Amino acid sequence: MDFKNGEDHHVPKKIFSKQRKAIQNISADSKISLGIEPTKQIVICNSGLSLGLLEEDVINIFSPYGPIEAVVMLPDKTYCFMAFHSKENALQAYQSLHGKYNFPRSENLMVLAFADEVPKVTNPWATLPRDGPPGLIVLEDFITSDEEEILVKLLSWDDPIQGQQLKQRQVQHFGFEFRYGSNDVDRQKPLAQKIPDQCDFLQNRLKKRGFSKWNFYPDQLTVNRYLPGQGIPPHVDTHSVFEDPILSLSMLSDVVMDFKDASGHKIPVFLPRRSLTVMSGESRFGWTHGIASRMHDVICTDDKKGLTLLPREERVSYTFRLLRSKKECFCSYAWLCDNQKQNLYQQQLDAIQLEKQYVREVYEEISSHFSETRHTPWPNIVEFCKTFKTGQILLDVGCGNGKYFGNQAENVSLFEIGLDASAHLADMCTKRGVEVLTGNCLNLPFRSSIADGVLCIAVIHHLATHERRRRAVQEIARVLCKGGRALIYVWARDQRLQDKMSTYLKQNRKNRQNTAIQSAFKGDKNNSVTGSGTSQSENNLCTSADSKSCEFTGSLPLPVHVNRTNFKHSDILVPWKLKEKHRQESNEGEQQTFYRYYHVFEEDELTRMCIEIPQIQVLETKYDQGNWSVLLRKLP
Ligand SMILES: O=C(O)CCC(=O)C(=O)O
Ligand SMILES: [Fe+2]
Ligand SMILES: [Zn+2]
Predict the structure, then answer these.
(1) 182 C-alpha to center of ligand 1: Å?
(2) What's the whole-model pTM score?
(3) Same domain, 285 and 362
């Protein structure tokens, strides 16, 4: 037989590919070099403790081929190792068993390979973790055999009281039904079937065992019944529904329960029959627990020198829980917290709704008035536009009425393409002969790496979560070509820098009396680059800036900012009072006020957000008249 080519015509073809894959996977997993070149060590690629193969089985199968030096069984693996005294014996075993030996009660043929060494496990017991996750306590012999019998006999499984056949087990509920679809209980519908009186011993027993800190009067009980081979998928008992701790009484069979943390670290915990498991703190909130569906569990041998399998019996568990008075959870394990996940999801929905109602719909309504107030381009932005060369592509994301088109250097012609969420504003641009699309800055309708430059002025502050604002920058990074640059402006929360008022504040009439008005102010009423309420005509300015602050109104979802004052909150609504002549249907004498949502940026907030994005580099951060700006470059 030529091992180099792996040719053995007595071995079915598919065994070769199984072997090849196993060699790859097991080498990577065990960090031991494997191959088909004979050595004295053999890896059994497709069976091990977790598939029911015991150390003694390995000895029985391999000893006919020569004296065995070592057998290494690993607790969670579907493979195991053995070593002969000589390479010749290993080769003999290989030739007789590989692709030929049929595992009992299975269709599978044994797949073998040779190993450079066997894993060094002097005491296999050491490979089983001894400590459970923090906060987990297993109180052994919590109930007597008599009590166990009483509790088990209490329930009939042929005609369950409040029972259900799940895929992998049967359940019955008391106090409240646990709803597996939504993973919660209906507080409004307590069950007629209360927790049986026979469970009343629980509090006293806990106290007697020294756990008086849990004054635990559960109002919900779930009884699980598992047949050998059945289990419960990894889960966390819904944070917002149940208090801490959760108690579970194991009856009729020992079992191993697997706990897993966020990083995937797994700790199998042995739950002996008649023990009470107390899951509290981190083990209750920060780890999932589950029982693998299998016929046996891996445990250490009585002499603690090896590992062996413990067959499962029928098991009944009583899980006692206490409903929370309010559906909430503020734990620090957000990845497993339904409350915090729901909030994240809800935040997204709220953000989409907020942007629709308080950004996009408003810009459609005020577009013509808005456009009238936007003429004068901001000098630093024009300067940026002038850095591009003929033939380069410049995108303006959120171009509004397109006031930054055509600002390139003399004798330079650029490809300029704009995008705006407002169809009216995009229309106005199109009528002036510039290329503008209607679209969303979170999904730019452009191929990746096509733009030499991107402008994004006064756009990102209209997005209602950090995640969405970051995604907008990510999109800009995506469409930029390598080495391409972007300039982003957002409104700053702080309208005074080093005691100097921004133009926006200076436009407050009260402030104007004290401040010399700069000439720049004459050109564009809105001397701020933002699409903010700064564009209001003077008569619309709030004149009582300091007497009135930002307020929650009750009818609006966020506090309303008072124009021309410093910001009191980061997330606000900024009023826009629509000029009479722009109104669609005018209710005589009534001022029509629209509210636009803004997130105003703290110092460094924009820069920190951009730094989070790996493909880009922040070249410059500037405070420019009440705005924060960043100049970005996509890394080559
Ligand atoms: O059977 C057990 O011990 C645990 C049951 C469980 O985790 C549950 O019902 O949530
Ligand atoms: Fe559970
Ligand atoms: Zn939680």
Answers:
(1) 17
(2) 0.53
(3) no
ipTM value > 0.95: yes
> Is 451 exposed, middle or buried (CB count within 10 Å of its CB: 0-12, 13-18, 19+)?
buried
| Ligand with minimal distance to 285 CA | 3
Tell me the pLDDT tens digit for each residue of 327-358.
777 787 878 898 877 777 777 788 898 899 99
Structure tokens at 99: 């692709």
**Cα–ligand 3 centroid distance for 599 (angstroms):** 28
Distance from the CA of 613 to the center of ligand 1, in angstroms? 42
pLDDT digits (tens, 9 = 90+) for 179-190: 988 899 988 888
Angle between helices 87-97 and 55-62 (to 10 degrees): 90
Burial call 319-335: b when 16+ CB within 10 Å, e when fewer: bbbbbbeebebebebbe
Out of 336, 364, 379, pick the residue that ends a domain: 336
Query: Are 103 and 176 members of one domain?
Result: no
Closest atom of ligand 1 to CA, residue 169: 1
> Does the CB atom of residue 526 touch ligand 1 within 6 A?
no
Domain count, the chain: 3
Question: Of all atoms in ligand 1, which is nearest to the CA of residue 249?
Answer: 3
- Ligand 2 centroid from CA 51, angstroms: 25
Question: In ligand 1, which atom is closest to the CA atom of 222?
Answer: 9
Question: Do 390 and 451 reside in the same domain of the chain?
Answer: yes
Atom number of ligand 1 nearest to Cα 178: 9
Range of the domain at 331: 136-336
CA 28 to chain centre: 27
Which of 166, 211, 217 is CA-nearest to residue 194? 217
Q: How far apart are CA 320 and CA 175, in angstroms?
A: 10
Tell me what pLDDT residue 589 has. Answer: 55
Mean pLDDT of the chain: 85
Q: Is the CB of 249 under 6 A from ligand 1?
A: no
Q: What residue owns the CA closest to ligand 1's atom 10?
A: 237
Q: What is the mean pLDDT of residues 501-522?
A: 49
Domain co-membership, 200 together with 243: yes
Q: What's residue 590's pLDDT?
A: 62
pLDDT given at position 153: 94
Asked if the structure places residue 210 within a domain, the reply is yes
Ligand 1 atom 6 nearest Cα: 319
